[in-house]
Amino acid sequence: MMLPRRSTILGGAALAAGAAAVPARAQLTIDMTRPTFEPVPIAIVDFAGDRVGADIANVVRNDLQNSGLFRSLPPSSFIQRDVNASTPPRFPEWRQIGAAGVVVGQVGQAGGNIKVDFRLWDVVVGQQAAGLSFTSQPANWRRLAHIIADAIYKRVTGEEGYFDTRIAYVAESGPGNARVKRIAIMDQDGANNRYITDGRTLAVTPRFSPTLQEIVYMAFGENRSTPPRVYLQNVDSGRRELLGNFPGMSFAPRFSPDGTKVVMSIAADGRTNIYEMDVRGRAQRQLTNSSAIDTSPCFSNDGTQIVFNSDRGGSQQLYVMSASGGGERRISFGEGRYATPVWSPRGDWIAFTKISGGSFGIGVMRTDGGGERMLASGFLVEGPTWAPNGRVLAYFRQQPSSAGRTGAVTLHQVDITGRFERQIPTPTDASDPAWSPLIPQ
Amino acid sequence: MMRTFKAFAVIAAMIVMAACSNQQEAAAPATTTVTPGSVADFRQNVGDRVFFDTDMSVIREDGRQTLNRQAEWLKKYTQYQITIEGHCDERGTREYNFALGERRANAAKQYLVAQGIPAARIKTISFGKENPDPPGSDEAAWARNRRDVTALQ
Questions:
Q1: Nearest Cα to Cα of residue A144 among A115, A111, A122, A186
Q2: Residue B107 and which of A5, A375, A383, A422 are 20 to 30 A apart at CA?
Q3: A79 and A220, same domain (yes or no)
Q4: Could you tell me which of A255, A33, A262, A50 has the C-alpha nearest to residue A141?
């Protein structure tokens, strides 16, 4: 597959002209850490030059709107209809409808590939804020749109984007006592959904390798008395292999940030401990040795530490240890039980599931356990996963079952402030989301 | 009028039965006409499941009675291997519940071994919260889902 190539479009005359009179504070920026802010009103014009241009604009609108940080103005409100990618828009006509930014683009052909130019115009100061050009295979048009949305997000928020990513999850169907659970992967916005396992056996807890080439997950055997084990599967070829051959059951796998190792839990004789396995050499090493339940291990973003949950102190709490084992220390001390810790890719927060007072919550705490903050709650919410910019989380939500009807299970995202929450659409019931890193370009 | 009263009476009786279902599981059910030594015999006359308190893997008194009957039966019918399946209610996280189910299955295994069943006859497996029976989101369903099920092979 030919990956998108990018180059920067220079601002040209408009940049030079606009640089003279920049107000102290432009409105095409947003500080996500402020306690309150208004979404940035942005106008995304259908890209010109090819039919796919309107589709690209739609994907960009959808990405930005779904972040909660932007308000995509309806194209029917646009006054200037003859805007094009190479000349500045008539800024007063965009100010008139309240836009802070205008996105325009042009699609062209380049020897069997498509070439997409886009520019983000800052309407407030009247100059170009971003401009990039991409060449790729026509089939990659959705990825191009996500990359453009990421560039706009970065220019406006100062944070890396997260739209050119995928989400692996467990697709669920069937009645509660005979549920089919299979691993699926889709684009972050729900497009290009495909199934990675066939559903003949129960498969859960998918996690991406850093390159997105492989996933690890737990699956049961064909025979009901065969313990479930951790599998490593190539996403494109579908080839899968058992990861380690332990006597008991193995579960809760997760890659190290460099992709060379997988940590997981092994349960045997009533004890559950954490093990590490070298992905290439298959050497395995025991990292905890307790008579308790030690599970849900997750590496720190720099790979030097592991956070996990354990009931060694009587109730399920979060602990941090060295990535080579040892130095275990408890970090969660609030009311209730803490589970499924995941270390932010930026290293500043640990997200978790909390069970307290008969309900479930998704929260974050600093890596030393301080600054705990809850972001979502409900009858059952579980399993946070970080978008690669560390500013957005996904998790799953299950409604209560009643009268033999299984409650709906759905994926959701929430930003780190807890302000903006939305459901991520999936074709079936869905649990265990795993957000991928940015797709390598 | 009579019909309405009848319907109420049936509902009332069902509620009473539901309320004492745990004790009924624990007591040896009435003998039926199944073949002695069959899987149906084990399920109906011995009892294939034991129940646990929330987040616990301690075998309760009612569970000990069931496991005592299982041990006696397994000593008589030595042709069977067993797999003890540990299960959990939905009020825990998925990964933790895999571990908790394993701990529950292992607790029953240890009890049976203590009653003289060779460990080599017993496999354990955990289904965590993936296999509710019955599915449901109330205390009654959760109490029945926190269970070990002894399957014969």
A1: A115
A2: A383
A3: no
A4: A50
Give whole-number Cα distances, B9 to A38, A216, B1, B17, in Å.
60, 54, 13, 12
pLDDT in tens, A19-48: 334 333 347 888 777 767 789 999 999 999
> What is the signed CA dihedral for B139, B140, B141, B142, rounded to 10 degrees?
40
**pLDDT < 50 stretches in chain A:** 1-2, 10-26
Are B99 and A339 a contacting pair at CB < 8 A?
A: no
Query: A140 and A214: one domain?
Result: no
Interface test with chain B among A205, A222, A225, by most B beta carbons within 10 Å: A225
Instruction: Quick: pLDDT tens for A130-147.
Output: 999 999 999 999 999 999
Out of B92, B102, B132, the one facing A272 most closely (by C-beta) is B102
The domain boundary, picked from A131, A157, A183, lies at A157
| Domains of chain B: total | 1
Give residue A20's pLDDT: 37
Q: How far is CA A359 from CA A14, A233, A341, A379, in A?
A: 55, 35, 18, 5
Which of A376, A356, A381 shows the shortest CA–CA distance to A364? A376
Query: How would residue B24 be classed by pLDDT, with cut points 50, 70 and 90?
Result: very low
The ipTM assigned to this model is 0.92
Task: Kindly determine whether residue B102 and residue A316, on different chains, have CB atoms separated by under 8 Å.
Answer: no
Among the partner residues A225, A353, A407, nearest to B153 by beta-carbon distance: A225
Distance from CA of A280 to the nearest CA of B (A): 25
Same domain, A81 and A173: no
Task: Fill in the amino acid letter for A78.
Answer: F
Best residue of A183, A216, A230, A251 to probe chain B, by most B CBs closer than 10 Å: A251
Name the residue with higher pLDDT: A163 or B24. Answer: A163
- Gap from A121 CA to chain B (nearest CA, Å): 47
